[in-house]
Amino acid sequence: MFYLACFVPVTSAIEKADWHILYRKRMEIVDKVKKWELTPNVYWNDISCELPFEFPIVSKDGNDITIHRNHRTQAITVGFYIIRGLSINPATCFYYTNDDEKIKHFDSLTAKNPRSNWKIKENWYRIRE
């Protein structure tokens, strides 16, 4: 029982450290996505990108990120896994987005469940799906 009571604050501290330590590298990746230098590159879906070995581990469980492009507006959304979910356990991600539709969606998720979802800073969200 004691373990469960301590797990949430420890996880939160680890997430905060992860966010601050890897922010610049994640922004480099976002910039590469914006320039079309990184695109989805796996055969099993059209949103996943396995990052090249030149990047540090910025996304848990394989260093895969998700890339969503709004082809109408040219906006992007890039997801970095904090916890890679399974069917019974949802994924938790840091998301960068400059897509107004995604921003509205993420804002609605933060309003519905602010304990699991929040805005970190402009264009950045922490979302548990």
Structure notes:
The longest helix is centred in the N-terminal third of the chain and has 33 residues, at 2-34. This protein has a six-stranded antiparallel beta sheet with strand order 1-2-3-4-6-5. Residues 1-7 have low confidence and may be disordered. The chain has helices at 2-34, 100-112, and strands spanning 48-50, 64-70, 75-83, 92-97, 118-121, 124-128. The protein has 129 residues and is of the alpha+beta class. It starts with a helix and ends with a strand. The protein is built from two helices and six strands; from the N terminus they run αββββαββ. The protein has one domain. Helix content is 36%, strand content 26%.
Name the shape in a single word: globular
Number of helices: 2
How many structurally independent domains? 1
Q: How many strand elements?
A: 6
Strand order of the largest sheet: 1-2-3-4-6-5
Q: What is the radius of gyration?
A: 15 Å
Mean pLDDT across all amino acids:
90
Which stretches are poorly predicted, pLDDT < 50 over at least 5 residues?
Answer: 1-7
Q: What portion of residues is helical?
A: 25-40%
Main beta sheet, described?
6 strands, antiparallel
Head-to-tail CA distance between termini = 26 Å
What is the N-to-C succession of helices and strands? Answer: HEEEEHEE
In percent terms, what proportion of residues is strand? 25-35%
Helix/strand-derived class? alpha+beta
